[in-house]
Amino acid sequence: MTVPPFSRRRALQLLGLAGGAAVLAPALAACGSSSTSSALPSTAPVSGRFEGVTLKLLVNQPHVTSFRDVLAPKWAAATGGMLDVTASPYDQLTSKQILDVQSGTGEFDVFDYFYFGLGDLVDAGALTELTPWIDANAKQIGVDGYLKSVYDPYTLLDGKRYGLPYDGDIHILFYNAELLDRYKVAPPTTWDEYDEVAAKITTDARGAAYGAIVSGQQVPMILGCSYINRLTGYGGNLFDDNGKPALTSDASIAALKHLVAVAPAALPTPLQIGFDQANTAFLTGQGALLDTWTDMALRAEDPTASQIAGKWGAVSLPVGGTNTTPRTALDAGFGLGVSTATKNADAAAAFITWATAGPQNLVTSSTAGAGIDPVRGEVLDSEGYAKVVTKAIGPIRQGLNGNPLVWPKQAGAPKLLQDLVDQLALAINGSQTVEQSLDNAQRGWESAAT
Predict the structure, then answer these.
(1) 82 and 123 assigned to the same domain
(2) Which of 161, 105, 121 is nearest to 31 (CA)?
(3) Residue of 172, 165, 162 whose CA lies nearest to 361
(4) Could you report how far apart the first and last alpha carbons of the chain are, in Å?
């Protein structure tokens, strides 16, 4: 393969991880779009024995349990191979994967990648193209079994495939049924009702609990999800029918206004609430409403980790304005890809086939703390999965079987998404109006498009 030359300047760009994905734009602009890599041969295996082979994985921090505790022992039993799992914070994952390849370190064989970082990874020459291999082995891989809502978004870029889907990742709305009953309110179906429920509980509870938990940490995976959940609720999209940014649409304005307006009724302080803080607050009964990933169903029902076991519920994301059809988004989903720096391509190819197959997808999706949602129809439709997610199965199936909004994933997408959430945060903290923030984001996205 050929990768752009590595330099001290590029190392500093990629190591500037405090800004998360935002550091990637200048680096990737310098790389251009001319990176090429050899494709995995169509003859590469989809299974086999791999005694003595240790695959090194660089994965999203919330997925560690799924790889280390669930899959590693099963992979060893099935193939004789070993897994060495390294976790990265979610706001550093894509940049660390690129750095591993372009620095020449080449430590890792398999990447657990954000799908919205796919373009940056490919542009940087970090992911092996899998198209010939997938096409030649489609039946053995079980391509037809992947959910249509996630297969292309998570693996396909400019007509070529670079991975297999691993984590479905949509949001639904969870609620604390005990709090709703105590304060005599019903689960909301619209964002207006959500506001009313949140305000009443926060007011009446007088500090004992909050009506809403709004995840607002200033990274795409957190604040980006909260905004996009409301955007879809109001019937909006990130782009219009002509592919142009639509960040100043009526739906977009309504979505951000909602985030601003609900802040006083939310767990303090939304812009400081990340994944772990939101989960802890909900599981300890501090908040009544939380839009988050569907694996919360397993966490909430686990009495060893939750104080609300048996006292929660879930519905589809609310709607707003003139929109009456619930719709979710593919909020920070993941695929598994083979690093271009791997020296264990055969074992890596076999692993991503095995790890995304039905039996493994079922066990990871059914394990509390694994952080995995279904990517296969057989898992989503199974009685086994329905049994563990209990009351959440309806909205989960509705979301993944529907037409979820797909985030941008071309080269530079993480930078655009970071720029967007930076502007959203300025509106939420009162530094700018909603309209100013969205106008700024719109101009930035339009400029990048030209």
Answers:
(1) yes
(2) 121
(3) 165
(4) 29
Tokens of 296: 């919360």
Range of the structural domain that residue 296 is part of: 171-329+412-449
- For the record, the structure tokens of 18 come out as 């405090």
Q: In whole angstroms, what is the distance from residue 269 CA to residue 262 CA?
A: 11
pTM, 2 dp: 0.91
Instruction: Count Cβ neighbours within 10 Å for each residue of 352-388 and write b for 16 or more, e otherwise.
Output: bbbbbbbebbbbbbbbbbbbbbbbbbbbbebeebeeb
Tokens found for residue 53: 């082979």
DSSP string, 210-259: BSB-----SSIIIIIHHHHHHHHHTT--SB-TTS-B-TTSHHHHHHHHHH
CA distance 361 to 174: 23
Question: Do strands 312-315 and 171-176 pair parallel, antiparallel, or not at all (unpaired)?
Answer: antiparallel
pLDDT one digit per residue (tens) for the chain, 450 residues: 444 444 434 443 443 333 333 333 333 333 333 344 589 999 999 999 999 999 999 999 999 999 999 999 999 999 999 999 999 999 999 999 999 999 999 999 999 999 999 999 999 999 999 999 999 999 999 999 999 999 999 999 999 999 999 999 999 999 999 999 999 999 999 999 999 999 999 999 999 999 999 999 999 999 999 999 999 999 999 999 999 999 999 999 999 999 999 999 999 999 999 999 999 999 999 999 999 999 999 999 999 999 999 999 999 999 999 999 999 999 989 999 999 999 999 999 999 999 999 999 999 999 999 999 999 999 999 999 999 999 999 999 999 999 999 999 999 999 999 999 999 999 999 999 999 999 999 999 999 988
* Residues of the chain by 3-state class (helix, strand, coil), percent to 5: 50, 15, 35
Query: Is 88 found in the same domain as 51?
Result: yes
In-domain check, residue 76: yes
* Beta carbons within 8 Å of 18's beta carbon, 6+ residues apart: none
**Helix axis angle, 93-102 relative to 24-31, nearest 10°?**
40
Same domain for 131 and 70: yes
Q: Which residues lie below 8 Å from residue 368, measured CB to CB, with a gap of 6+?
A: 295, 298, 299, 301, 302, 305
Same domain, 427 and 314: yes
* Token pair 């563990």: residue: 388
C-alpha to C-alpha distance for 102 and 106, rounded to whole angstroms = 8
Among 439, 237, 411, 263, smallest CA distance to 327 is for 237
The secondary structure of 36-97 as a DSSP string is B-PPPPTTS-SS---TT-EEEEEEEGGGHIIIIIIIHHHHHHHHS-EEEEEEE-TTTHHHHH
